[in-house]
Amino acid sequence: MRWIEISPGFACNCRCSGCFSCSAEAGAQMDWAEVQRWLYFGRERGAKHLWLSGGEPTLRRDFRKTLKLAKHLGYERIKVQTNGMLFAYEGFAERAVAAGMNEVNLLLKSLDPKVHDALNRTPRSHELLTAGLEQLRLAARDAPLRLEGDFLMTTRNWSELPAVVAHYADRGLVHFNIWLFSLVDQGSRDLRRLVPKVSDCMAAMVEASDVARAHGATLCSLNTPHCMVPPSHWSMQFNAAGMDLAVVNPGGHVFMLEKSSIEQRVYVDRCDACAVRKWCHGMRSDYLAVHGDSELTPVSAEAAAGVDPRGSVLEI
Ligand code: SF4
Ligand code: SF4
Fold it and tell me: Which atom in ligand 2 lies closest to the alpha carbon of residue 282?
């Protein structure tokens, strides 16, 4: 194990469409003793890096205690995945950095506050994210702090992707992850209308990757099989297994990232003829239930010749 992702609780101050945290039981929280146990567990199993997720990890009373202990135990990269809202409050970012946080992944939805707030189902979430980023940039002047963006791609925002990458790369973000909207955690709501067809989005994704590169940043796509991405841009393919990351959820559920329900793993018969079958993670079943499998087209040996199909891990 190189990374451990600890989700200490599913409580959140946003109610994003399609997020499990909105439907998780309010009581699904680790106590501090449990958080400590998992921090020690990670180091004992060789994890060098911590990814603190949720829910919204900044809401927890033991947020800074967790960062401090992680630093004390020798975790090198201490990443916080967040909607960024609490960082808007003066001193919050500075104190988190002093406690040990050295990476932040901000949840990005749209440059349009109305779209962002609507997808988050939380008024003012865009305003607070913007203010939070400014505070994080101030904190980054005095300490090493890597800023990344997680873009959740839906039918409502995919066309903005290159502009979002340009906007945030101009504001110091050095890496972007594209997460394809998933129905896995939609609960009783029917959110199929939000799942974009990847072939519709691919030109924007390729452009966003080029925009990132032009800014000296990098970009990964986490949920797209190789046949949907031009070989010229396979470097954007996320290699989940390459992370060697164990996820720990409240209740002690532990699994490797590549076994997560939002990883792909579904193939069709014609995949057997695909030259990159060995490296492709397949497609998610919830996506195939909405859009069918007509986009899955075996990659020929000629198309794959001379291109590294392994993709990237978030170790950049
Ligand atoms: S901010 Fe993150 S954890 Fe909170 S509801 Fe949105 S996606 Fe879920
Ligand atoms: S055809 Fe199948 S194995 Fe090949 S890239 Fe597409 S999903 Fe992956």
Answer: 7
Q: What are the pLDDT digits (tens) for 143-173?
A: 999 999 999 999 999 999 999 999 999 999 9
List the chain domain ranges: 3-304
For the residues of the chain, what is the DSSP string, one character each?
--EEEE--B---S---TT-HHHHS-TT-B--HHHHHHHHHHHHHTT--EEEE-SS-GGGSTTHHHHHHHHHHHT-SEEEEEE-SGGGGSTTHHHHHHHHT--EEEEEE--SSHHHHHHHHT-TTHHHHHHHHHHHHHHHTTTS--EEEEEEEE-TTTGGGHHHHHHHHHTTT--EEEEEE--STT-TTS--GGG---HHHHHHHHHHHHHHHHHTT-EEEESS--GGGS-GGGGGGBB-HHHH-EEEEETTTEEEEGGGSTTS--B--GGGGG-TTTTT---B-HHHHHHH-STT--PPPHHHHTT---S-B-S--
Give the Å distance between the CA of 20 and the centre of ligand 1: 8
Kindly give the distance from the C-alpha atom of residue 136 to the centroid of ligand 1, in angstroms, as a whole number.
19
The ligand that comes nearest to the alpha carbon of residue 227 is: 2
Which class would CATH give 3-304?
Answer: alpha beta
Residues with CB under 6 A from ligand 2: 225-227, 267, 271, 274, 276-277, 280, 282-283, 296-299
Tens digits of per-residue pLDDT, 48-106? 999 999 889 999 999 999 999 999 999 999 999 999 999 999 999 999 999 999 999 99
